[in-house]
Amino acid sequence: MLFKNLLAAAALAATAFAAPTAEKRQAQKLKWFGINESGAEFGEAVIPGAYGTEYIWYDKSTIDQFIAQGMNMFRLNFLMERLTPTLTGALDKAYLGNLTEQVDYITSKGAYAMIQPHNYGRFNGTIITDTAGFKTWWQNVAAQYKNNSLVVFDTNNEYHDMDQTLVFNLNQAAIDGVRAAGATSQYITPEGNSWSGAWTWVSSGNAASLVNLKDPENKLVYQMHQYLDTDGSGTHAECVSATIFSERLQAATQWLKDNGKLGVIGEFAGGVNTQCIAALQDGLSYLDANNDVWLGAIWWAAGPWWADYMYSMEPTSGPAWSGILPSIKSYFLS
Ligand SMILES: *[C@@H]1O[C@H](CO)[C@@H](O)[C@H](O)[C@H]1NC(C)=O
Ligand SMILES: *[C@@H]1O[C@H](CO)[C@@H](O)[C@H](O)[C@H]1NC(C)=O
Ligand SMILES: *[C@@H]1O[C@H](CO)[C@@H](O)[C@H](O)[C@H]1NC(C)=O
Asked: What are the Glycoside hydrolase family domain coordinates in residue numbering (predicted)?
């Protein structure tokens, strides 16, 4: 999801909860029940920008609250340009330090942390064409986390309006860079062109192209995004129908099955209303029924600066924390 405006900071009142037991997590219907943590990519007009002014990292007490609800996957948004001022340059110590602090906190609780450059296949405003440089970027970043098997590498958020061969080549370069770093135990999630939409995965040409990605460790999980509004953009509170989520997943599900691949819904959301809740439940039930190929789903979004944003699941003030989470968590937990 593209979100341009920095929202006003909202004060947080957070309460720590105990982490769920390992047994409870193993009993999940879907491997991953997750949340997008958004804020470190905010203020992208100001690079590098300042922590607390242009961008923000995530509150550990809210991470605890999500874990207490059964969540075990955190998709961590950040900007490539803040981590490395040039594509192949050195990592910024402070920004990396913050990212690593969050990764270590999340994974110390037994949950997964997804490293997610929120860059749409662009760097400094330009489509990345330097695939060798992109491989180096990933090799440098993955080297930081190579010992941690609860880290998941997301090649890039939502490629769009790009040459399909380039999208393939960037994904392959990312996979090659991660593995060259010696990070061999982690999952990697390639994303597709056309904003990585599940509903257009086959019709956009992503399916035919990205089926040929190669991972020597065989740990690819194709990441697709799915919103339920009329244009699939995730910018409206209304959902098209009570069955739109499962309908939009069908072609991609068949593709995963036909090709022996795994998938994850890396972003999904709907507004707090009866029709959207019905659609969310129907779609999650469909994912449960097809959990041989779908590993899970990750809500869009949380983060300290979303204020009253319609999809915010930030504890405890986000509308979706009280309006959606209680109605969907049973689809993840046994
Ligand atoms: C970023 O792009 C601007 C022009 O848009 C250019 O002046 C600048 O040198 C670029 N920075 C890097 C690090 O490539
Ligand atoms: C997080 O970022 C802030 C601001 O740049 C910095 O002062 C701090 O040292 C960083 N934290 C870590 C653990 O690196
Ligand atoms: C990763 O493993 C190497 C070699 O076993 C070790 O030296 C290093 O301290 C480990 N790093 C972390 C972050 O655990």
From this structure: 36-302
